[in-house]
Amino acid sequence: MKKTANYIKASILSLFLALLALSSSGQTVTLQPDQSSLVPGQIVHFPITVTAVFEQIQYYLNYDPDALTPVSGSAFIEYRHPDFFTPTINQNYAPNIIYLNMFTLGAANVSLSGEVLLTLEFIYNGGNSTIRLRHAPDPAPTSKMFDEWGDQIANVTYTDANISGPFGTVYSAAAGGNWNSA
Question: pTM for this structure?
Fold first, then answer.
């Protein structure tokens, strides 16, 4: 009887450690796809796909304001995964950084496997650039994911998206209009 109880305890501990290792590795966040041959003034969609088990995200999105202008207001988020509240967004966090904070509806972990969490919309102004989620070794602030206990999830791999096309008309939501580049 004692051997059986010890075996069960050891099995449960092994299962717990395996699940812990699985949940702390293999987490990926991808801005996709790379896009080329864009036309100035074109609306560009950036899906953020996630493979992870998590309850909250805090993403800091770096972009080049000469190449991209966020679509203003709620139109910036074209799609949101149905298991999450509408994100808190600060498009003016810094001159080239947007802050996104998002929680699950049930305040519990959700498991996504290559699913789209959000799709963001920008106006393409022209030129070549990268849009990326800030992460180590970038200076603070950096993107983070948390589990349902509020613990930060480690070992998250972030993948950036690249854009390219000709230079052309520059649009600026901040200036309230657009103008032709020189």
Answer: 0.76
